[in-house]
Amino acid sequence: MDTNLKKGLITGFIGVIFVGLQPIIALLRPGIVDAYISGAMTCLVEAMIFLPILLIELRAMNSNNKEKGIENKVQTQYINGWKKNIWLLIFIRILFSINQVLFFVGYSLAGAINGSLTQKTTVFFGMILGYMILKERITKP
User: Contact, 108 vs 26, CB < 8 A?
Assistant: First the structure.
């Protein structure tokens, strides 16, 4: 099995566990903490979890390039690349933030079990929209 496929499956599995816990955590929050603050805290926790993983992956890619004798740095490519797409990144961040707020409002209205079930359907919608918009092929791993 390809190492990228393994990493993708492991990351996806961890994501499914976190997504399954999210409705329970959302309903355990105190009443004074509204959906906006909960959504913001969720985005910050996600960033704290995945930013170190991203940096570790970039360091591994740089060390692999040095072993192969490739001089250009992968980190420099990524750092310079985000500046070209700043408006796209801002748009994506806004969508993710709105998504979290809507999830927390929905959890309080529907409950933890129904919220968890709706979270599990996001995989299917992701595959369908990826096929329709990005023209990705749906295959078995």
Answer: yes
